[in-house]
């Protein structure tokens, strides 16, 4: 693994960056979007006039899937048309993304990608069958999935400190799981291993849900998992929480310390989630979906429920701000992946 002076550090929260860009670069975005929607273009004014497909390139039950289904339910109620979530799993989210990239650009097939799909995969695959900001039209950020470092109850470690001590005493004997190379579960473990100067063995699974089951069954010993996806296991005692990846403790797990508190100042990691459409989707449709997603996210009951599910909802932002954010995140992930010594698949 490449040497760094300190562990790669995540930038400010996704929604804080986007909100700032929106205020300073697009102060009149709300009026512009409204004008676009009221422009009299009948075909767009009627959108949607049939069910919308939302392709989630992750397994059912994963944190991204839970948040996606919640948002789909709210948009369905707002539009009076169903938003049907379809899980298209495989190849580090490439299968689902490729399907949407090739879909008609009419607003009726959306993708719910995370940072791996759009920001990490370009650094991992030399022959990636899509170019994120060329083949997709960014719509809106939904929020961030915070992660929790969990362990099998059979592992004699109840804190990050104890895990690190155990890993140093037994180098190469502790296995960690993820949904694949440079996935949202893999990268934070690389960050921790670099910071703590330890080596754990990586065991990639087909999905994050499968990896979590692997920890529960003690096939592997630890992993970083989306909080929303493993809450039932934590509540039942089938998984042990060691620390959370956020800068501050989570309301849903108030007794669990952060990794920064556990001896690694500055450690912060979270996977963001959003909506994109095929490139070429009419701007009026993109603006309408953006406005409606932001409307849902402004509701206090929405923010409370997403927080209860272990998800951090985003602040409203424009499609252009989301595009800039994806571009910035792609550069950040390039730095992180190179530092971790992860080679591109050809």
Helix-strand makeup class: alpha/beta
Q: Specify the overall morphology.
A: globular
Number of helices: 14
What percentage of residues falls in helices of 4 or more residues?
A: 40-55%
Count of strand segments: 10
> How can the largest sheet be summarized?
7 strands, mixed
Q: Please name the fourth-level CATH homologous superfamily of the largest domain.
A: Bordetella uptake gene, domain 1
Organism: Bordetella genomosp. 8
Family: Belongs to the UPF0065 (bug) family.
Protein name: LacI family transcriptional regulator
InterPro entries: BUG, Bug_dom1
Note the topology.
Layout: H1 14-25, H2 29-37, H3 42-45, E1 52-56, H4 63-79, E2 83-87, H5 94-101, E3 109-111, H6 115-124, H7 132-135, E4 136-151, H8 160-169, E5 175-178, H9 186-196, E6 201-204, H10 208-216, E7 222-226, H11 227-236, E8 240-244, E9 270-278, H12 283-298, H13 300-308, E10 312-313, H14 319-339
Parallel strand pairs: 1-2, 1-3, 5-6, 5-7
Antiparallel strand pairs: 4-7, 4-8, 4-9, 4-10
Structure description:
There is one protein chain. The protein has 346 residues and is of the alpha/beta class. Helix content is 43%, strand content 17%. The strands form two sheets. Strands 4, 5, 6, 7, 8, 9 and 10 form a seven-stranded mixed beta sheet that branches. Helix 2 packs across helix 12 and helix 6 packs across helix 14.
């Amino acid at each position: 693994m490449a040497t760094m002076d300190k562990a790669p550090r995540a930038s400010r929260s996704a929604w804080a960056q986007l909100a700032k860009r929106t205020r300073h670069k697009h102060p009149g975005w709300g009026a512009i979007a409204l004008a676009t929607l009221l422009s009299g273009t009948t075909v767009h004014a009627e959108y949607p006039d049939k069910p919308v497909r939302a392709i989630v390139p992750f397994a059912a039950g994963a944190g991204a899937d839970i948040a996606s289904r919640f948002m789909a339910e709210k948009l369905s109620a707002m539009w009076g048309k169903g938003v049907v979530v379809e899980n298209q799993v495989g190849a580090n989210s490439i299968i689902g993304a490729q399907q949407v990239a090739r879909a008609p650009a009419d607003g009726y097939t959306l993708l719910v990608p995370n940072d791996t799909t759009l920001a990490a995969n370009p650094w991992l695959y030399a022959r990636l069958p899509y170019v994120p900001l060329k083949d997709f039209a960014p719509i809106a950020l939904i929020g961030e999935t915070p992660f929790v470092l969990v362990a099998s109850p059979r592992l004699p470690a109840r804190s990050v400190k104890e895990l690190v001590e155990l890993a140093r005493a037994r180098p190469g004997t502790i296995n960690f799981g993820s949904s694949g190379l440079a996935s949202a579960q893999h990268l934070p473990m690389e960050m921790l291993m670099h910071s703590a100067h330890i080596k754990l063995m990586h065991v990639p699974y087909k999905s994050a849900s499968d990896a979590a089951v692997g920890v529960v069954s003690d096939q592997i010993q630890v992993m970083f998992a989306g909080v929303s996806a493993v809450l039932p296991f934590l509540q039942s005692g089938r998984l042990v929480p060691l620390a959370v990846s956020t800068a501050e403790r989570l309301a849903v797990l108030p007794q669990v310390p952060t990794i920064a508190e556990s001896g690694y100042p500055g450690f912060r990691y979270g996977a963001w989630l959003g909506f994109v459409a095929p490139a070429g989707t009419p701007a009026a449709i993109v603006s309408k979906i953006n406005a409606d997603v932001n409307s849902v996210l402004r509701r206090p009951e929405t923010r409370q429920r997403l927080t209860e599910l272990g998800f951090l909802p985003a602040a409203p932002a424009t499609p252009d701000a989301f595009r800039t954010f994806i571009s910035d995140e792609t550069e950040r992930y390039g730095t992180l992946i190179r530092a971790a010594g992860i080679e591109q698949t050809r």
